């Protein structure tokens, strides 16, 4: 048994060895067979890869079909901090994984879309998994950013399209440049698309995909970088050793070293060359070698795709070059570079085979398959993780501010805008949104010229307007551009300057009832105008207001009786207040004629209170009327029984009314106050018309300082109330602080458009303060002539302030000028206002009292006339 044991052991060893040899032989044979039939192995691998890729694509496409989109719109005051932006980046990274477990990695991403197509300077959208909508809808940016669900974007095919994918070049572990938040990091991108023209089909879009990478991919990348760093260190050590040996050899072979050996007494140790110790490779520190990849926190992979298109050849390529230059702003030791190869004048990239199909699939499906070098930390992307901020200068596109079209009743001319590409266009606001306008600036700066251009454009579009110009300079300036046959029948001139040898004047009876006004509105308008011009109120002049109101009530009632009797030529005028207060006979006749029209309280006042008033109580009421009567122009204008001037009718019939008061003295201020209050009354009287039937009307008030000096409360009420009645005031003034506080506050509160030309900083400061001093008063004060800064309302939001050049009539409306038809226009304007020679109207005004007396005599209670004394009649005439 003992002798058989080694034998059995040897047999077992031989069997095991035979098995190992057979296994090795089988493996060698299999390897030889695979080597001989390598194409079968490649085919199997290719089939497996194709099947897996097809399955992955199907799953990714299914996941992409359930993506959602959000659009972020920032306000003008959006100014986030770095922490707010970083938190947003963390949200985006977290939302990229809000998908089911079966979704492939390429579909687990959140996409930031920066798009410029002419509808906005740069639309900011976020697209991602539907499960991340709740997370992405609540941003750390607060109320300054509005988040809304975005609709899918469908682009029409363009004739020319270019594509590009950007990868990180340079040192792979180095971060991108830290770009400050002011100015906005998006500014270079916005500048690159600022000259985009939607009418040419221009389109530019940047898509940044953010993806949380798997741990194994990060570890593999770190191993690769550490291996590369160690190899680099070894190469450096070997290079240093080589140079050290060369230096040592050079020293020993030198003549100086040989002489030293001959002259020294002590022989050098060793017969051969000295021993050179090679440098040891330095230990590679992971933090130094890995850089930004050393830590796992807030590290993501990104994919940056760009597409530009246009219907005009060359514009898409130029746009891509501009965007590439804009991305250079983020470059440092690491930078964004276009992926591909350049062969002379040709570039092989995303636009060419074999990468184009993959680009199109990723672009269409939103898949993220970034290059292995595209690792970034969230703080490197702060410039792209938020919409444009308050520090971003946005261009004004046609979608933001429409282009003015001559004759379009929906547009109101504002000025000439010069775009970033140097092109100029006439810009406008929508008429229905332009409720009130304010223009400020020094004399001769162009504010009146701009208002005239706007008014003329509105007139040619069929709109009604009124220009109140105390200096009359605007009328001759505008006449050549209004001298069209289609406009002449709508233009009326009320000129109270009395120019020429035999001037012609229109007529107006503020107390007239022949236009169907409400009696109490007429009384209130005249009394309020009187009080406004003379600074009366219930505290300082209660008795004067009572006397005037009572007298106006009687005269208006007399005029109502006259009109109902078919005798509008027998109406009383404002000059007959004197007769009513000082002549008993006239007063009795007037009270008798209107006995059934005055209320009991008014009758009681005339019977009980009026007889107790001293004669000097009437002087404060009669003196201003006497001054009006002393001026032949105002006496002729206000002294006619059935005046032609009817601003309510002008509003409703789209008339173009030019009113030129004679000056700015006390008498002129009273007349201006009467006109302003009548305008307010007429606008408010539109209550009797349904809102959709009210025709828009635009009064232009030049020299607001002069006008508000006569009627401050009236002008303030216009800016507060008239929007409801579609009467939109446009005011111009040199100095905003000189306006009464009530007017200034109402004007600034309700102005849809604010405009200023150059001027002193103190005069401009109230306007720039409304804009947050951006631009500053210093910048506005240095504007050239006809240059304006203007803020406007378009589609319910403010546009600007932007710099516009005021439209000059000779340039903008050159084709509309008809200087040869100016005389015909002036005749038509006076004919429409029924202007008559001054001496003729003055004579009629002097005879009007007699006609009123005759009418009253026929309408007293007993039918007997109540004549005036000859002295009184002559005195009043």
Short description:
This protein is of the alpha+beta class. The protein is 43% helix and 16% strand. The N and C termini lie far apart (167 Å).
Structure description:
- The chain has 877 residues and is α+β, with helices and mostly antiparallel strands.
- Helices cover 43% and strands 16% of the residues.
- The chain has 31 helices and 24 strands.
- The strands form five sheets. Strands 1, 2, 3, 4, 5, 6, 7, 8 and 11 form a nine-stranded antiparallel β-sheet that branches. Strands 16-18-15-19-20-14-21-22-23 form a nine-stranded mixed β-sheet, sandwiched between helices.
- Helix 14 runs antiparallel to helix 15, helix 22 crosses helix 23 and helix 22 runs parallel beside helix 24.
- The longest helix has 38 residues.
- It is elongated.
- The C terminus is likely disordered.
How many H/I helical runs? Answer: 31
Give the strand tally: 24
The major beta sheet can be summarized as: 9 strands, antiparallel
Q: What is the typical, i.e. mean, pLDDT?
A: 83
Radius of gyration: 45 Å
């Amino acid at each position: 048994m003992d002798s058989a044991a080694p034998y059995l052991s040897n047999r077992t060893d031989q069997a095991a060895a035979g098995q190992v040899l057979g296994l090795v032989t089988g493996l060698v044979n299999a390897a030889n067979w695979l080597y001989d039939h390598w194409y079968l192995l490649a085919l199997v691998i290719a089939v497996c890869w194709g099947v897996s890729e097809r399955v992955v694509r199907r799953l990714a496409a299914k996941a992409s079909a359930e993506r959602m989109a959000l659009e972020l719109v920032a306000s003008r005051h959006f100014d986030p901090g770095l922490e707010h932006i970083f938190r947003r980046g963390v949200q985006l990274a977290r939302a990229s994984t809000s998908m089911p477990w079966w979704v492939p990695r390429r579909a687990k991403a959140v996409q930031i879309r920066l798009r410029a197509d002419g509808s906005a300077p740069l639309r900011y959208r976020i697209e991602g998994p539907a499960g991340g909508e709740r997370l992405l809808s609540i941003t750390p940016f607060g109320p300054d950013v509005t988040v809304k669900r975005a609709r899918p974007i469908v682009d029409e095919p363009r004739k020319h399209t270019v594509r590009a994918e950007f990868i990180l070049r340079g040192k792979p572990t180095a971060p991108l440049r830290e770009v400050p938040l002011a100015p906005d990091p998006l500014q270079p991108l916005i500048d690159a698309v600022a000259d985009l023209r939607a009418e040419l089909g221009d389109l530019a879009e940047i898509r940044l995909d953010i993806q949380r990478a798997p741990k194994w991919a990060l570890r593999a990348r770190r191993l690769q970088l550490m291996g590369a760093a160690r190899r680099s260190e070894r190469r450096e050590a070997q290079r240093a050793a080589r140079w050290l040996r060369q230096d040592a050899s050079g020293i020993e072979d030198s003549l100086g070293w040989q002489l030293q050996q001959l002259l020294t007494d002590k022989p050098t140790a060793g017969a051969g060359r000295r021993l050179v110790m090679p440098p040891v490779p330095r230990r590679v520190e992971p933090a130094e070698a890995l850089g930004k990849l050393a830590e796992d926190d807030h590290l993501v992979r990104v994919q940056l795709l760009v597409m530009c298109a246009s219907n005009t050849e060359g514009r898409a390529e130029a746009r891509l070059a501009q965007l590439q230059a804009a991305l250079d702003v983020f470059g440092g030791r690491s930078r964004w570079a276009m992926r591909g190869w350049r062969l002379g004048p040709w570039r092989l990239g995303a636009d060419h085979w074999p990468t184009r199909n993959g680009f199109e699939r990723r672009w269409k499906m939103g898949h993220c398959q970034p290059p292995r070098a595209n690792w970034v930390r969230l703080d490197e992307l702060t410039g792209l993780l938020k919409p444009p901020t308050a520090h971003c200068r946005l261009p004004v596109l046609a979608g933001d501010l429409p282009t003015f079209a001559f004759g379009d009743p929906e547009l109101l001319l504002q000025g000439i805008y010069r775009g970033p590409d140097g092109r100029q266009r006439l810009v406008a606001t929508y008429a229905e949104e332009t409720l009130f306008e304010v223009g400020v600036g020094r004399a001769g700066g162009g504010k009146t010229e701009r208002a005239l251009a706007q008014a003329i454009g509105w007139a040619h579009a069929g709109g009604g307007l009124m220009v109140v110009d105390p200096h009359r300079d605007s009328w001759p300036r505008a006449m050549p551009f209004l001298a069209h046959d289609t406009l002449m029948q709508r233009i009326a001139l009320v000129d109270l300057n009395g120019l020429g040898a035999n001037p012609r004047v229109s007529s107006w009876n503020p107390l007239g009832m022949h236009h169907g006004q409400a009696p109490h509105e007429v009384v209130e308008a005249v009394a309020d105008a009187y009080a406004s011009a003379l600074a009366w109120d219930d505290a300082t002049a209660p008795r004067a207001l009572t006397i005037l109101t009572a007298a106006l009530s009687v005269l208006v009632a007399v005029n109502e009786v006259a009109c109902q009797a078919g005798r509008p030529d027998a109406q009383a005028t404002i000059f007959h207040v004197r007769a009513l207060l000082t002549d008993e006979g006239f007063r009795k006749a007037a009270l008798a004629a209107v006995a059934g029209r005055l209320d009991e309280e008014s009758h009681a006042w005339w019977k009980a209170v009026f007889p107790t008033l001293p004669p000097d109580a009437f002087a404060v009421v009669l003196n201003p009327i006497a001054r009006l009567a002393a001026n032949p122009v105002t006496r002729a204008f206000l002294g006619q029984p059935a005046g032609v001037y009817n601003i309510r009718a002008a509003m409703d019939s789209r008339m173009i009314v030019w009113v030129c008061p004679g000056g700015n003295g006390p008498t002129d201020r009273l007349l201006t106050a009467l006109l302003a209050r009548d305008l307010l009354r007429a606008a408010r009287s539109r209550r009797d018309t349904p809102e959709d039937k009210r025709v828009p009307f635009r009064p232009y008030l030049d020299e607001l300082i002069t006008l508000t000096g006569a009627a401050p409360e009236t002008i303030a009420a216009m800016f507060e109330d008239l929007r409801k009645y579609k009467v939109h005031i446009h005011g111009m003034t040199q100095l905003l602080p000189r306006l009464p506080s009530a007017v200034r506050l109402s004007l600034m509160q309700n102005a849809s458009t604010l405009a200023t030309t150059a001027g002193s900083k103190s005069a401009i400061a109230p306007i720039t303060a409304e804009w947050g001093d951006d631009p500053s008063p210093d910048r506005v004060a240095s504007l050239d002539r006809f240059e304006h800064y203007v803020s406007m309302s378009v589609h319910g939001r403010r546009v600007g302030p932007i710099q516009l050049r005021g439209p000059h009539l000779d340039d903008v409306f050159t084709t509309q000028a008809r200087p040869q038809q100016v005389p015909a226009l002036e005749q038509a304007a006076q004919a429409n206002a029924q202007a008559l020679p001054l001496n003729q109207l003055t004579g009629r005004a002097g005879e009007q009292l007699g006609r009123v007396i005759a009418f009253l005599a026929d309408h007293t209670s007993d039918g007997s006339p109540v004549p005036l004394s000859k002295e009184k009649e002559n005195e009043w005439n």
